[in-house]
Amino acid sequence: MVCCDHHENAEGDIIEELYREHWPLVCGFLLRRTRDPHLAEDLAQETFVKATRALLGWRGENAAAWLLAIARNVLIDHVRRSRREPALPDPDELGVPPLHVEALDVRDVLDRLPERHRRLLTLVYLEGFSMVEVAAMTGENHSTIKTAVWRARAAFADSYGAAR
Asked: What is the pLDDT of residues 30-51, one digit of tens each?
């Protein structure tokens, strides 16, 4: 049984380190989405409980991206349970009118963008991650992501204007 105790201690150390290092990121993401500090903390705790249960399936990839994906799923589950809609980004942030036909045009333009542009715009404008969170998820620094998102927006605007 010593073997199992050692294994459990190692997992506990990993979770403790993930918690200490990534709690502010996860809690901040959930706070921005819920605008409720108590709910954000509850959902962040649930995120780390789920991360603990899923630790054996984690392959050591980017911890921030892994935890934020779990946090996003916890938030979606919470919204489904409470039957409320999460706060979605304002369509004006991409310069897109809120009409249904234009929404199809937006998807079409997004689909034609290079993969990196499409992924960055989706993470920031459709899924609501901040630039700091995207930087943590990708392992790149904040200024690199900020520049890349700016370029992706410019490419989107050019393509969207040409499509109309």
From this structure: 888 888 889 999 999 999 888 8
